[in-house]
Amino acid sequence: SQQGEEDPQALSIQEGENATMNCSYKTSINNLQWYRQNSGRGLVHLILIRSNEREKHSGRLRVTLDTSKKSSSLLITASRAADTASYFCVYMNYGGSQGNLIFGKGTKLSVKP
Amino acid sequence: GAGVSQSPRYKVAKRGQDVALRCDPISGHVSLFWYQQALGQGPEFLTYFQNEAQLDKSGLPSDRFFAERPEGSVSTLKIQRTQQEDSAVYLCASSLSGGTKETQYFGPGTRLLVL
């Protein structure tokens, strides 16, 4: 399987704490994306980091990428109950169609108020 | 603006029944993707269209699955003779041109339950 793997599979924290999720992938990439999925808003793109970038910020999100280790991390600072969702590390498959996404199994984050 | 819409949102089918799932992509988006998401898993690619051309159907699990996009906008995913293992959420996504740096915008999905 080409799927990436997120770690941990589930994470439960208190509101205000930081949440860190990790991802490992198996192939060469041009970029890596993180998506969030919850019952209210469905699957939503959060952030994209290119292979020549090491770190990227967007609001309370910080993403790192280490292409030598084929790994990425997503940090959510000052978490809120509304951050409760599943988070997926996603990259594109270049072997097949031009841009279908490969998803991992996701990290299920629960933020308790 | 309007996002990707899918209908129906929920579908219950008896085993052996045919179903048709509809996707309305964002207006003007050239590329359209279908994904299947089993419970507790991430979405998995099924098929991809660029305009009306189906460029990749390598993810379709069997010949019971068929997708079309005849006029390059609305797409339909059809599943014939449904089986219990077809129960999943079917997600549609569209992107402006389908390039490797394009963000894909997902619809809310159709949750299919085959009894």
What would you say this structure looks like, in words?
The complex is a heterodimer of chains A (113) and B (115). Chain A is an all-beta fold. Helix content of chain A is 0%, strand content 58%. Chain A is built from no helices and eleven strands. Chain B is built from no helices and eleven strands. In chain B, strands 2, 4, 5, 6, 9, 10 and 11 form a seven-stranded mixed β-sheet that branches. A four-stranded antiparallel β-sheet of chain B has the order 1-3-8-7, with no helix packed on it. In chain B, strand 4 and strand 5 form a beta hairpin. Chains A and B meet through strand 5, strand 9 and strand 10 of A and strand 4, strand 5, strand 9 and strand 10 of B.
Please give a quick description of this structure.
By secondary structure, chain A is mostly beta strands. Chain A has strands spanning 5-7, 10-14, 19-24, 31-38, 42-50, 55-58, 61-66, 71-76, 85-93, 100-103, 107-112.
Through-space gap between termini of chain B: 37 Å
Mean pLDDT of chain B: 93
- The chain-level structural class of chain B is mainly beta
SSE pattern of chain A, N- to C-terminal: EEEEEEEEEEE
Q: Main beta sheet of chain B: strand number and arrangement?
A: 7 strands, mixed
**Using DSSP, what is the number of strands of chain B?**
11
Any key phrases for this structure?
heterodimer; A: 113 residues; mainly beta; 6-stranded mixed beta sheet; 5-stranded antiparallel beta sheet; 11 strands; 58% strand; globular; B: 115 residues; 7-stranded mixed beta sheet; 4-stranded antiparallel beta sheet; 48% strand
Helix and strand arrangement:
The complex is a heterodimer of chains A (about 110) and B (about 120).
Chain A: E1 5-7, E2 10-14, E3 19-24, E4 31-38, E5 42-50, E6 55-58, E7 61-66, E8 71-76, E9 85-93, E10 100-103, E11 107-112
Parallel strand pairs in A: 2-11
Antiparallel strand pairs in A: 1-3, 3-8, 4-5, 4-9, 6-7, 7-8, 9-10, 9-11
Chain B: E1 5-7, E2 10-13, E3 19-24, E4 31-37, E5 44-50, E6 53-56, E7 65-68, E8 75-79, E9 88-95, E10 105-106, E11 110-114
Parallel strand pairs in B: 2-11
Antiparallel strand pairs in B: 1-3, 3-8, 4-5, 4-9, 5-6, 7-8, 9-10, 9-11
